[in-house]
Design brief:
The chain has one domain: F1FO ATP Synthase, CATH 1.20.20. The protein has helices spanning 2-13, 15-36, 41-73. It is mainly alpha-helical and 74 residues long. It is rod-shaped and about 55 Å long.
Length: 74
């Protein structure tokens, strides 16, 4: 049973990969947007930060679930 809990925890932590990819894509698109419309840099920065926070929250939820799985079932 311990091996299955470890696998489940690893899958839950794997959400960090998706968050990293999402933040990378958002930052890339923000840089493109600022280069095309420098006057909208403030709005683009705000939207990008909001997206990064939401993506990072997903990773934190995955870590939290992994810790709960490991402590309760491990």
């Amino acid at each position: 049973m311990n091996g299955l809990v470890a696998i489940a925890a690893a899958i839950a932590v794997f959400t960090g990969v998706g968050a990293g990819i999402g933040i990378g894509i958002a930052t890339s698109k923000a840089a493109e947007g600022v280069s095309r419309q420098p006057e909208a840099a403030g709005q683009i920065r705000g939207i990008t930060l909001l997206g990064a926070v939401l993506a990072e929250a997903t990773a934190i939820y995955g870590l939290f679930i992994a810790i709960l799985l490991y402590l309760k079932l491990g």
